[in-house]
Amino acid sequence: MKKSFFLVLVFFVIFLVLLLGAAFFTMLEENCTHMKAGINSSFFNWTFFLNSAVRYLPWCAILSLMMLILYIIKHKFTILQFIIPYYIIALLLWMLAIPGCAFLYDNVQKAFPISQPDSQDFSAGYFRKDGEFLTFVTGKEEDDGEIWRRKVFSEQTSSVSQESDDITETTETAENSVIFADSLIEKAVSIPAWWNFAHEKCLLLKKVCRSALEKGYLAYILFATMGFALSSVVFMCRFSSWRLVNALSVIILSVLIVIANIHFYDIPIIEKIPILGEWWLPLVFNATICVLFMTVGIINWIRHPDRNMEDR
Amino acid sequence: MNSKIKAAIIFVIYTFLVFIFSILWFIFFSDASNVLPPDQFAYKFDNGIIYFFMLIPPVLMTAELFGFSWFFGVSSNGTKKRFSNRMLGHLKTVLITCVSCVILCFVSEEALIPSIQNAVSLYEARARNYWEYTELAEEYSKSGSFNNARFYAEEALKLYPGSTEAKSLALRMERESLEANSAESISSTVADEKNDFIQMQNEELSYSYLTEAEKAFAAADYINAHYYAEMAAKATERDGQNLLRAKEISSVSWGLLNSDKNTFNKESGDVYKLKKEAYNALENGDVLKAYYMLIKLNDAYPTDPDIENYFEETVNRLENQYFFVDETDDLRDFETANNVYFSVTKPDGQVDLIFIGGISVVENTGQFIQYFRNFSVTSFSEDGHVKQFFSVPYAKMTAQLVSSLLESGLVSAERELITSNDQYVPYVFLEGVDRQSENTRNAIKPKFKYRMEEEAPSFYILDIPFGDLTLIRQACDGADKMPFISLMRFISKASQYGFSSEVYTAALAKRACFPFIILALMIAIAIMSFNYRLLSGHAFRFHWLLLFPIMTIILRFFLMLTDYAESLLAISLYSAVGAACPAAMIFLSIALVIIISFRFLSSHSE
């Protein structure tokens, strides 16, 4: 009993650490997207910090649940000692906390709005690459504040074509600097391609979740079956006799379940394989996963009740 | 011991498999359409090796994770309490292993990857040049200057000898230029001002020399007749009518010059006049005229001490104003940098934007002589209006001491300079002249646009310390590729040359703390392998090996994310602590290593 309570405590510690870390680094990310070369910006920005903390609250909670399994793998718990508190946390999280977060998020967004990075205003005195041109801001028009941003040199070094347009003024901006205010900063922070992709997919899940909530609680439960599938991974924590293999399997299985669930809502994929778009498919898939993992876990527990326990 | 060797063998085989995989992947699945076909295999191979080196940290971490997990499993008795002696011993093992792995990672990151990347960018540059040459050849042939077209077609063929496209292009250009030449000889030369900087082709040159020789011979000017005939013979490469005629004129005029001493003496009055004229020209500052007069006189009277002295003086002065166009022949293939750009703010607030299409460094001069291709300078006034623009196809740069420039009067004493007297500055010659004759088609001159203030100057002084030019050249390749030492010297100057100091300082900070971050991660992985160690009494199953590649992929993704987080932190730290950002990052990462080491020591079994 004591151990079960302790597990709940551990969950909150993991959750707090994850949330603070996520909020801190998202704050840095927001800092960088708003930053312009040569213009000082602040390091700590409470608006960004609070906003990101609320934005990542549900994600951190889901991730903490997964990390809790890793904790369980490391430590001595009998199956009953961890299954009950784990499922209580998971149920509360998926049934109450996540819908609650959605409303919290809306209110915080209103209270601490984040301005979009302004990618039209450039700081003077720096070279920036714009397609095959280099641009350089030389000054501002005094009357209307319009910026003189000039295409100064062609990247194409052909001596023939260079004569035509050496110094042309340009007002259009590069398309790729949508997120970042300054393309110089954008190039300096090397965003991994997979991170952008994962981010996009997570936004998709968030959107699905929000629209399900709007449709009603039943529609949300259909979406939340993903949560049950994810929680059932806990049954796999005594799968192998090597705990490292267990830890890796838990991580890989969780990622696979999320990827599979994304496929049910991703429109371009649904257009190719229409059956994925059926409303009942997430339910069937996630329920199958649940039952499968539970069976495997229970059989494992019957066959090796003491598996992975040190010094027994 | 036996099992240790077994584990080592497994990891060596695994590393080798990763190596083979990355190379095969790049050979079969990568796109190499941006290099020439003969380079494609080597290009893919090199890219595969680069990718392998990039995979070294996750591969080492995978090996570490599985290896330690097994190692701690067999040797972790007596770790019941936190901070046990046993764990201290383990930490020693972990640190020794991790530090040697970190050194390996650092070497591959800072030395091996850049050196292969150099080779890769060489292939890319060659392909770029090839495509540009063929394009230029087409363009010149369309605009009717077939000699230039042929020159570029041949250069393209040199870069890619097997190319059927270049071969047919070169053949076509040769045919067209021959046809054009024969047409030209009938209807005299049509000046092609647009492309006057390109080396005139030998045959054409020879023909014009021969015409000059004929003229001089007809005017009984045997000195010039002999001189031009010799030049014509030198310039031509083929045996033909031209060569025969040139040799004839040369020998006849030489015979006339030597046999008849009287003619010689009779003409010495003329020689005196010529000498005087040349001398006057030199005194009046028309160095070019003096040079071309004296070069002829010097050829005809090599023993005349006056001419020799004047000539020496003229060459000295000429070299202070001009460079010889033939110095720039074939420089293109030896360029050390492309697309170099920077800005210089003058004391009066004027901003000069400088662009250099390619830099060729002359070997054995300690980089003191460099040639700039497509050198252009745009000047803006303080309030942002364009003041002047000029560009020149080739310019010669020499490093000069500021005080000597001031002494020799090349830079007027009133001019404000940022650099101090004892510094070397890049001094750029903008005008190139022909070495042998007053050939305006051949000369290089800057083209000016927009409002011009005074007379167009024939030089441009880059008011920056000479050493900075090398830094800027490296900075233009990006902060990640810049050598570490150069990056350290550059960050304080970045913003004054139009580069973002945030970006370069953050790059330095990231690279400086890279070993510590990897070390911290590796110790963290050691903690993970202790926590999830293989408990004693369990045998190692072979199919667990299948998890190796998955772990490597996970770790690779994780390292990419760490890299991103580091960038964010470094750039944000710059706005908080400024130039102390690298020091702060190193401090933070060392603190991280210490904290994680303590966490490792505090690990215990239950």
Describe the structure.
- The complex is a heterodimer of chains A (312) and B (606).
- Chain A is built from 9 helices and 4 strands.
- Chain A has helices spanning 2-34, 46-74, 79-111, 183-188, 193-215, 217-231, 243-263, 267-272, 281-303, and strands spanning 127-130, 133-140, 147-154, 168-169.
- In chain A, strand 2 and strand 3 form a beta hairpin.
- Helix content of chain B is 61%, strand content 11%.
- In chain B, strands 2, 3, 4, 5, 6, 8 and 9 form a 7-stranded antiparallel sheet that branches. In chain B, strands 1-7 form a two-stranded parallel ribbon.
- Chain B is elongated and about 110 Å long.
- The two termini of chain B are 27 Å apart.
- In chain B, helix 3 (85-143) runs antiparallel to helix 15, helix 4 (146-159) packs antiparallel against helix 5 and helix 13 (466-475) crosses helix 14 (484-490).
- In chain B, a hairpin with a 5-residue loop joins strand 4 (369-380) and strand 5.
- Chain B contains 17 helices and 9 strands.
- Chain B folds into 4 domains: 2-122 and 502-601, no CATH class; 128-176, no CATH class; 202-324; 347-462, no CATH class.
Provide a compact summary of the structure.
The complex is a heterodimer of chains A (312) and B (606). Chain A has 312 residues and is an alpha+beta fold. In chain A, 61% of the residues lie in helices and 7% in strands.
The SS-based structural class of chain A is alpha+beta
What's the end-to-end separation of chain A, in Å? 21 Å
The average pLDDT value of chain B, as a whole number, equals 83
What topology, given as strand order, has the largest sheet of chain A? 1-2-3-4
User: How large is the radius of gyration of chain B?
Assistant: 34 Å
Described by its quaternary structure, the protein is heterodimer
- Number of continuous helical runs of chain B: 17
Distance between the termini of chain B: 27 Å
Pick out the low-confidence regions of chain A.
154-166, 173-178
Low-pLDDT residue spans of chain B = 187-200, 261-266
Give the largest interface: A-B, 60 and 71 residues
Morphology of chain A? elongated
